[in-house]
Amino acid sequence: MSLPPPLPPSLPGDGHEHRLHPWSWLFVLLMQLRHYLLPLVALLVFGQRGDRDPMWAHLIPLSAIAALVLVSVLQYLSYRYRIGGDAITVRSGLLSRNRREIPFARIHNVEVRQNPLHRLFGVAELRLESAGGVRPEAEMRVLKLDQALALERLVRQRGQAPQAAAGDVPQDAAGDETERVLLHLSAGDVVRMGLLTNRGWTLVVAAFGVLSQTVPRQVIDDAIERGGRQVFGFVRDLHPDMTIAMVLLAAGLLLGWLALRVLSVVLTVLRYHGFTLSERERRLTVSTGLLSRTRSSVARRRIQAWTLREGTLQRWFGLRQLRIDSAAGGPSRDDDRALRELAPLAPAATCEGLVKHLLPQLQWPPAQWHALPQRGWWRLSLGSLVLVPLLAAGAYWRWGPWGLLVLGWLPVALLVAHRQMARMGWHLDGQFVAVRGGWWKRWWRWAELDKVQGLRLQRSPLDKLLGTASLQLDTAGAHGDVALALNYLPQAQAQQVMEQLAAALARRKLRW
Description:
This protein has 512 residues and is of the alpha+beta class. The protein is 44% helix and 24% strand.
């Protein structure tokens, strides 16, 4: 029986419980202030109205801040961790005490985060995620940077032990201690990614959402009305000619679009600067970020499903995105930097090369895709077929015959639905199952048969009318935007494929 790897010198290895970094309470406080900033500001601003004593109006938010400071200090004093031979023990809580045992072999994802303040203090935040949890198993705010990186290496080393014992790791890979860079994005690649994505629009929409929740509706309507009158009045006074006014309006829209492109580039650079995908001991690690650095890693055997995506503009430049789903964590969020993107945007040949390297036993791309019957292709535009006539009726009632222009969307929706159904397909062999779809935005999604945990045959009332069925495949941690499903198959074929998959899964051992 092999002994576990020794602890690095930077980690406490005396078997006793230890506290986090002495400045940990400060970072917990800043996190809490970020969550409660808007209520505190509202209390400070609006609490002074009326007949209330100004002194009390200031004491209430100050008391709330003092309470947050006290809670942060108590959290630091009550948090303990101990590194054992095969697990990490975490104790937390003041009134309600919690103790968590986290075996190294059960840790699916390790994430090290550093924002500018972390880098100033030379510390980092460490997150440990296991399978199926919406929240991390442990969040260590904060550790010294060398301790966080050493603990990440320790998890990688000791988490390989069960896999090596089972004989799943080839001998040449088991002894590989070198880190191999699989993908690195240069500054030009990151800027190009920003130009080809819509992160600027995402931020603008989010800002409007926040304003709609915090600013009264009447104030927003008045501001838009006054701003529109001033802009159009200025244009009309400057150039009475309507043609010139329209040109100026088009120029304004173009400048707005360019501003959104610049904003998208800035956001992309902040997040993906220095993006590097590397592999060591059959574990993938991604390092990325400009101001806030994130280092996230996951074992290759923990990957449950794969997704390739490309938009229309990205396809013109021959670029694609490669994403993975692991059993760790919940659905992706904007503030979640867990390892989900192996290639945020890279040439199609590079993405396919990554797939062939990480899944050498699969034949990708498949030599043959099974097409779907074109009967019932209109079902993909069913929402437009119902909603557009209703909108046209309302627009006709409001604006007269001009409102019927809304019906012009119907042929577009039908064309898109026909092209989408024509491109949908699926593939199944003895190693994996794959589906594809989309037209404007195309995608491919697949999973190894060893990772499939359940099958579900579904038939809606429309399926019963058309004689079709859909086969859903469940994998642990599948949080992608596209479901792994064989949709709109003929009922007899769907039943046959389900029986074939069920027989194959019964003979296989689930690889977790």
